[in-house]
Amino acid sequence: MQIDLDGSSQFAFIAVERQQGRRNIFCSRGARRPFCIDARVRNSIANAAALLLNGGEPVAALAAARFARTRKIPVILDGGSLNERILELCSHCDHLVVSQRFAEQLITGNPAEAVDRLLRFGAKAAVVTLGSSGCVAREQAGPLVECPAFAADVVDTTGCGDVFHGGYAHGLLSGLALPERLRFASVCAALKACSIGGRQGIPSLDRVERALASRD
Predict the structure, then answer these.
(1) Is residue 138 part of a domain?
(2) Of 14, 41, 117, 174, which is the most exposed, with the fewest CB atoms less than 10 Å away?
(3) Residue 13: pLDDT band by 50, 70, 90 thresholds?
């Protein structure tokens, strides 16, 4: 943990629609010194099974990705929106898992074209999430994989993207093939949507596995 005693933390207010569970985020980024990839952070990365980055601290994220690559630790990008710094980061990530908004900012066309464009950065796999329409993905030289979203009684979509990325990382480290990895991550996100709040509805592994079994 790094603390800037003279800084201020990021703060967000989230409004959720009562009928469909869609959310709008009103965020203050705060003011603090940049995160630093020091010896302690490098040691944490070296002992990790995977590294998940969102590009929020672009300089630190790039340094972390480069260091992880030297240790052959898979790097996963959570791409929410496009900017020049995150494009540089893409070239140092093994798995590019990005939002529909990111894909539309990257290339004018359908999600499959965005997946192919993402793979040109050299990643092993690229995924574009499409909310209630599921997701599409491809590995290098592999077929296009389409995964539908799983039906859920949606209450609040806050955190669904984060939970999807966590599920993707778990599936990757568990050795799941890309179609099963997407399916696992999609169920994680669907279960999260059934509860209010970004943390409260995060499903346990047992709950995800039971949901997968019942859907089979």
Answers:
(1) yes
(2) 174
(3) low
